[in-house]
């Protein structure tokens, strides 16, 4: 217990940092992922090509490589002034958005085609059909896989510790470098913190799934 009590402020800062990084990255991923999913089912060929390229590129790029591209590439392009934290949010959010996109697109594919055709027959545009008819139904199917993806996102935040971001991974590195602490106890407390975060995400999405479930 002395590992936690002696370094409680450090653990608290790392825990809050991980929660903030997870929440902001998840928000960015959900917005981008839904938008790119709309592109992938769009009747406009250029948008479909962009969506396909986005998903293919990001799903097949290691997250560490994406972190390097963002942290080193953006300043080289003249986009300076971003903190390490926001660069990490950008990298995690963009990476996860590719997987969110596929989860949403799978949900869209479960909606009967006849509903979209009926919406078009009464004069609704593609955007109106998607926003009012298709997506509300697709979300019900997409919630479980999205929850799993956000749990993976929470664990992926540990990579940010290698890029000067304060979160649980950086706490573990700092304490490992200090003398007098058992490394297994350090890992135990870090694991407990991650379990609290992932269980919270799992509980939230289980609640959403139950609330949005269709009575059968």
UniProtKB/TrEMBL annotation:
Q: How does the entry describe its membrane topology?
A: Multi-pass membrane protein
TM regions (residue ranges): 21-41, 61-78, 85-105, 183-208
Q: Which PROSITE patterns match?
A: ABC_TM1
Gene3D superfamilies noted in UniProt: MetI-like
Q: Where in the cell is it found?
A: Cell membrane
Entry keyword annotation includes Transmembrane helix: yes
Transmembrane in keyword set: yes
Q: Where is the ABC transmembrane type-1 domain?
A: 15-205
- What keywords were assigned to this record? Amino-acid transport, Cell membrane, Membrane, Transmembrane, Transmembrane helix, Transport
List, alphabetically, the PANTHER family matched. AMINO-ACID ABC TRANSPORTER PERMEASE PROTEIN YHDX-RELATED, MEMBRANE COMPONENT OF AMINO ACID ABC TRANSPORTER
* Cross-referenced NCBIfam families: HEQRo_perm_3TM (TIGR01726)
The family note in this entry says: Belongs to the binding-protein-dependent transport system permease family. HisMQ subfamily.
Name under which the protein is recorded = Amino acid ABC transporter permease
Q: Which organism is it from?
A: Streptomyces luteosporeus
